[in-house]
Amino acid sequence: MHDTRSKTVILADGNFPTHPVPLALLQGAHRVVCCDGAAVKLLDAGREPDWIVGDLDSLPASLRTRYTARLVVDPCQEVNDLTKAIRFCKAQGWHDWVILGASGLREDHTLGNISLLVEHAHDTPGASLVTDTGRFTPLYASGSIASHAGQRISIFSFDPATGITSRGLRYPLERLRLARWWQATLNEAQGTAFELDFNGGPLLVYASHAPVSPDAALRADLPVALTIAGSDSGGNAGIQADLRAFHAMRVHGCTAIAALTAQNPDGVRDIQLASAENLGLQLDAILESYAVAALKTGMLATSELINVVAGRLAAYPGILKVIDPVMVATSGARLLADEAVAALREKLLPLATLVTPNLPEAEVLADARLDSDAAIMAAARALTARYGCGVLLKGGHDRARPSRDLLSLPDGNLWWLATPVIAEPRSTHGTGCTLSAAIAAALAKGRCLLEAVVDGKAFVYESIRTGRGLGPRATVLGQPGHLPRSVVSLAAAPV
Fold first, then answer.
1. What is the mean pLDDT of residues 340-354?
2. Which of 82, 271, 397, 419 could form a disulfide with 359 if both were Cys (CB 3.0 to 4.6 A apart)?
3. Is 428 an active-site residue?
4. Which one is catalytic: 54, 101, 432, 456?
């Protein structure tokens, strides 16, 4: 009754699961078949759909294009999308399916979805419907059902003539005929199994999930991410923006501060650089005690600071490293001296998992003018080949398509990533820091490089969309309440 190893999950477009049991089913599924718009919710949860079934009236056009090869289109309006998904699974010979996301939005839909389970599961042993509170399982013959002591059990009969006898329940049933649905609800299992004996049927058995320890989340290991950057006294960029992103992405954030700045929306008034010795000691203190899974770097203003960071990080090849080569200001002014650029190229970039230059920075690194898509793709490929890492070439300086970036992966694949343009955003200061921090956090949580970049772009999009004012002139990026991965469109670039 509580197996989390089902190979096929059918995800309906109701409330997305939040309980550990249905989430474990999603995580362990060999394949996920989405009912129409449920694909959006699955993407936002960090997993791609294997199939999308239905009339697709709730699926954004961008996702129809993105997943053309995974669409099963059925425009019939006399059959709902869950029925279409169940029929599709049966046609493929997948008889181990479990339904998630089929409750919560409307009670009439919930009842209809439960009835579909009973209708279609007679030839599918083990099929069930799981909610955030429990599991519905149809029963077509007498048998034993796994349970745990104290588990809430409710039994529903679709034939009032069916007599039911139970063993192992707190309130025994003795050839009870259920003329009303409430008659066998709120029962309780006494041990590791209970038995139901009946002729006729079918029955529908509801079993609650085992209680989750309130401090389970506190006992779980928390991924650790590190930011090596400068402090922004206004809280918009730098260390402060990085920690805000780490917290929102649910990783623990450590810091190594390379500079202290005095700044507000009107400009930077003073910068005090950390000494190379002090920055090295900060890194030693962190790396000796914390299991850092991923890190990001921001502006490292001198060759001395770059060298000490590269020297420390070289001893930790297992840490995933997002290097933001802060070299050129938005105004176009160079921020690093030639010797610092040389140290960046020679010492730090060869250690990178991902490098995130903007267009002006990529022009410096690639020694090329990037004034066309072809030039951008060639530069990304060249940098990937040179440093053996992923390259996210940010397009924010491209006035024609400011929300489009190019990702070059070490496997040779190129991806264009874009989000909708937000007209007149409240704030954009700190987006570069936020992007690299969000990507590092996603990597720390085990996301692959492409998935982590999608997470980062979605995080920045939502941060800009929810930006707010904090004073007469001050604005700040927003704090995303969720990660809208579905707004990120992916398009493979020619290789």
1. 95
2. 397
3. yes
4. 432
Provide the domain count of the chain.
2
* Distance from C-alpha of 473 to C-alpha of 192, rounded to nearest angstrom: 64
The structure tokens listed for 481 are 């309440």
Per DSSP, 344 falls in state: I
- Residue 434 a catalytic site member: no
Residue 314 structure tokens: 């070289």
Which residue among 296, 347, 394, 445 is the active-site one? 394
Q: 138: domain CATH number?
A: 3.40.50.10240
Look at residues 293, 290, 287, 289 and name the one whose alpha carbon lies nearest to residue 312.
287
Is 157 within 8 Å of 43 (Cβ atoms)? no
Peptide bond into 202 cis (omega under 30): yes
| Confidence (pLDDT) at 118 | 86
What tens digit of pLDDT does each residue of 202-220 get? 899 999 998 766 565 555 5
Q: Which of 433, 445, 457, 467 is catalytic?
A: 433
| Catalytic-residue membership of 168 | no
432 tagged catalytic: yes
| Last residue within a domain, chosen from 167, 186, 208 | 208
| Digit-coded pLDDT (tens) for 429-473 | 889 999 999 999 999 999 999 999 999 999 999 999 999 888 777
433 an active-site residue? yes
Order the strands of the 224-231 sheet from edge to edge.
267-273, 252-264, 224-231, 292-297, 320-323, 354-355, 390-393, 404-408, 414-418, 489-493
Please confirm, yes or no, whether 431 is among the known catalytic residues. yes
Over the stretch 75-84, which tens digit does the pLDDT of each residue have?
998 899 999 9
Average pLDDT across the chain, whole number: 90
Residue 95 is predicted with a pLDDT of 83
Could you tell me if 257 and 377 lie in one domain? yes
Active-site entry in 83, 227, 384, 428: 428
Contacts of residue 180, defined as CB under 8 A and 6 or more positions apart, other chains included, come to none
Provide the residue range defining the domain that includes 320. Answer: 221-493
Please identify which of the residues 137, 431, 434, 475 carries the catalytic annotation: 431
